[in-house]
Design brief:
transmembrane helix; disordered C terminus; Vps55/LEPROT; transmembrane; 5 helices
Length: 144
């Protein structure tokens, strides 16, 4: 029995490592799209301000994890603190999608730049969501 449990643990570690590689790959694609949206001909660097939203978006969810039960954080746990943190996260994500649209409407950026930035937002926020769904509990990270 001990042998099979050890093999099962190693398979679990390999799956977690594959997810970490996937997250790194998605994050690099998202940042590449962001750089492309800013660096192509006749574009400017104003859209890089969405990086602030990328940094701020996981913070309320991490705080909200501490507001729920001590065991682990799931989507079903609810408290006023956790609900407030989900609301703040939603505001940050909507702002990240709204900033390029407002910049396009005020003619600061072009439509191609807005498309690249929106694509980057989609990929980066998908990466953040996968991270929190995979490594949501405190005991989900194995000891290497």
């Amino acid at each position: 029995m001990g042998f099979f449990q050890g093999i099962k643990g190693k398979i679990f570690i390999l799956k977690k490592r594959n997810i970490v590689v996937l997250l790194a790959f998605l994050a690099s694609i998202g940042l590449t799209l962001l750089i492309l949206g800013c660096a192509l001909a006749e574009y400017n660097w104003w859209p890089t301000f969405v990086i602030i939203f990328y940094v701020l978006s996981p913070i309320p969810i991490a705080i909200g994890r501490r507001c729920t039960s001590d065991s682990s954080y799931t989507m079903r746990d609810t408290s006023p603190c956790a609900d407030l943190m989900w609301f703040i996260t939603s505001v940050i994500v909507v702002s990240a999608f709204g900033l390029p649209a407002v910049m396009y409407r005020t003619s600061i950026i072009q439509v191609g730049s807005m498309a690249f930035i929106m694509s980057a937002n989609l990929v980066i926020f998908t990466t953040i969501t996968i991270y929190f769904m995979t490594f949501g509990s405190d005991d989900s990270l194995p000891n290497f």
